[in-house]
Amino acid sequence: MPSAYWNGQLIADSADTVVVEGNHYFPRECVDPALLTDSATTTWCPWKGTANYFTLVVDGERNPDAVWYYADPKPEAEMVRDRVAFWHGVEIRD
Fold it and tell me: Domain count of the chain?
């Protein structure tokens, strides 16, 4: 089952991930909301739409914009709706 770790702490695990462009998108409910802080950062993907970000906070340490999601994905990317993906040092283990 894919799992996401940062700073030695389990952030998310689920047998229900969707892999898009090599990234595991975990169901949003798999991540403890206490670990996430809103970020003003957004980026644009031509086929998925606007990505929004969270800063990951574990034991007081911050990992800015390490979590991204598509709040309103384009129709061809509907499979990532209500899911989050990770980067910036977050380790994904299968």
Answer: 1
| pLDDT tens, residue by residue, 25-59 | 999 999 999 999 999 999 999 999 999 999 999 99
pTM: 0.95
Assess contact for 64 and 88: CB atoms under 8 A.
yes
DSSP codes of every residue in 17-51 = -EEETTEEEEEGGGS-GGGEEEEEEEEEETTTEEE
> Which residue segment(s) compose the domain that 9 sits in?
3-93
Count the residues in the chain: 94
% of the chain residues with pLDDT over 70? 100
Helix (H, G, I), strand (E, B) or coil at 82: coil
Where residue 63 sits, what CATH number does that domain have?
2.170.150.40
